[in-house]
Amino acid sequence: MKPRLPLLLIALTLAVFGAASLSAETLKVLYFTKSSGYEHSVVRRGSMGEPSHSENVLKSLAAQHDIAFTFSKDGSLFSEDYLNQFDVVFFYTSGNLEMVGSDGNPPMSAAGKLALLSWVANGGGFMATHAGGDSFHTYEKFNGNTPKDKRGYRYQLNGEASDPYIKMLGGEFINHGPQQVATALVTDTEFPGMGPAGEAIHVMEEWYSLKEFSPINHVVLVMQTAGMEGSDYQRPDYPLSWAKPYGEGRVWYSGMGHREDVWEAEYFQSILVGAMEWTGGRTDANITPNLLEAAPGALTLPPAR
């Protein structure tokens, strides 16, 4: 008979090797960029199907951080079995994704959308940047970008009546003003990936004005509105990026990511990798809710236009 190891030693051995194998696993990320609404240049592929600018940036990060990306614009693939292939689903999308819309790629079915929400609630990692917050607008069911005169519901708080995707994400895009140099204050420098951003991000960007913030958001970036050009910023400082739970899952969002030079910046790439590693469970973070501590005027909306 082989000698039996003490139970404590077995447990410690499993814990050590289990942790090591977990950290060594390749992180599997679905980067989904269907544009049913406005199609941003950073996600637009070439005329012959060449990778988009953002896909090329992510490809350059893959080997450095042991991340395997699947790039897709096909919403029809969403199902429980499809999603179970991934650790993280990363949206840079727009519009009502159940519609073919602007880019002509296959839409998501109602069942596929429910599968996504269920997958996240059951422990999946979800993240979105920029136009990921301009997706599944409450009360907007247009096949293409919502007409400007049909965006009235964005200028009110819909609360529990909000689309389930918006409630999962923790916020919703309202509108944006002209691209301009402005400042986003880093409210949690310890959140994974935020180190290179320092205390604040001060760059040229298309800054999203947002609403429908979940009370359980852990705010990571706050938009400093003083001096900004455009009525969309005639409001107190508001959250621009946050992390939150959704059931057993992890959710992260940032309103940044419109411009190619933002995607090329080291600090933004670090932020994205940190978000992938946190949503994918590689790292942990303190996500204590801090919505009104970080942005006391977050619930004040800009004037309608």
From TrEMBL:
<protein>
    <submittedName>
        <fullName>ThuA domain-containing protein</fullName>
    </submittedName>
</protein>
<dbReference type="Pfam" id="PF06283">
    <property type="entry name" value="ThuA"/>
</dbReference>
<feature type="domain" description="ThuA-like">
    <location>
        <begin position="28"/>
        <end position="279"/>
    </location>
</feature>
<dbReference type="InterPro" id="IPR029062">
    <property type="entry name" value="Class_I_gatase-like"/>
</dbReference>
<dbReference type="InterPro" id="IPR029010">
    <property type="entry name" value="ThuA-like"/>
</dbReference>
